[in-house]
Amino acid sequence: MVKRMPGNHIVSLTSLPDDIVFGLPQPITALSLAPTSQDDIRQSGDMVYHLINGTNSSYPQPQALAITVIPTIPGTNLTLYLRYGDFPTRDVYNMTTSVVGSGSDFSFLLPDLNESPVLYLGVYRDRSSTQGGPGHNLSVRGLTCDFWNERSHEWREEGCKVSPSSTTTKTVCLCNHLVEDRTDFAASFFTLPNTIDFATVFSADLGENPAVFATVLAFLGLFLVGAFFARRADKLDAIKAAVFPLPNNKPYDRLQYLLKIYTGHHVGSGTDSKVAFLLTGSLNDSDVRALGNEKNVLTTGECRTFLMTTSYDLGHLQTLHIWHDNGGKGTRDSWYLEKVVVLDLQNDLSYTFLCDDWLAVDRSDGLTYRTIPSASETELMSFGHLFFSQTKRNFTDGHIWMSTVSKGISRNFTRVQRLACCLSILFCTMIANAMWYQTEDNVESPAALTIGPISFTLHQMFVSVMSSLTVLPVNLIIVQIFRKTRNKPDDKHVFAEDLVQQTSGLSGQRVREAQ
Fold first, then answer.
1. Which domains does the chain have, with CATH numbers?
2. Which of 46, 115, 167, 278 could make a disulfide contact with 321, Cβ separation 3.0–4.6 Å?
């Protein structure tokens, strides 16, 4: 059927007057389907409606749908009514057929979805034939005929369609062309997710789904309890994130330096000892400055911000001398200093002093005094520093679940907001699970992949990817909305980002990058 011209040139044959007909077998379900779910149906009298949506962003629209109805009780008489785009009635429908009392399954094909990809199937059961139970199960599968295009190296469906003579066991394809010297044809078969009709799901009888109702109420109750404690923690975080002026600042000092002091995450890293420091610059020294006498200021795993003012410019900062008097009680006498970041608000410069060591008489080298040079660009860009800093940030701020209980989270994305995002992810995951629940029953003997002790099927991989595409986009948008919102004005506290933006051109984003 492929014509070769003189010179051994190949001519593609397209728009043939008669379609090329070929059939491909398809795997079908073993008919051990789950009972009809109440989440995707609507019942009106003796008529049960199923919403069948042939379109979904997770997979291409099929060319045809294979629908199988299985009576669950022998002797059940069913009448099927099909209508595009709206609920059918016994008088208004596009297609109807009957399944009379044999108890065997009945299948039919919808070869053309161009009229409307959304259709409603009404199943009418003759109550006089049997009593009790939903009366039937339903299976919906999508069929598509494709060919392999050698030029574009992709599967295409132009010129191919599913024949009305197709069955649930065999897909018959009609194609009006041959391309190149070889054309590969295939019939795709994929399982449609369970349809959730939100127009009717809220009118369902809650008594028929007590487990789902109780689970949702339990999660909402846990959220309210968690939100109460998260709100309290947010108020404490607001106090901790405020800027503390040094006690020996003078009112006539005109130059300002912002110090961000990070305490380590080791057990017992915080201290109540009196801490003092001295900054050495290329032009001047800061003199000895104390952080103050307040307790629980330098706590484990947290950052505190202090404002230092001077009457003269220190120049480029070179060295930080820092120590404490070891006067804390019990385990609060020692201190693990991670790093100190100093922001020069006049010159828009940032200096980082890396310590990562104990200032304690009973740990490390036994000294409570450290002399720390300003870190070079090479040190700040080293793999060890970047790996530790990024890992810490990912756990304390990036990980949506762990950040609800971690310390030092972002002020513009509070714990309550993060907890609400967790609830959204949880409920979206439940919806995704409902969409793909027991869809593997529609695949006979799915191919399994085994990697060491792990075994999974291609259908399971497909469902996991589709579930992720269902859950992730909407929740990523919600998280980004919270992150991009502006902070609520606070008349009680001054925060580092606000102070920086008021006194210099250094942006809040650069403050976070300096950390």
1. 3-203 (no CATH), 242-375 (2.60.60.20)
2. 278
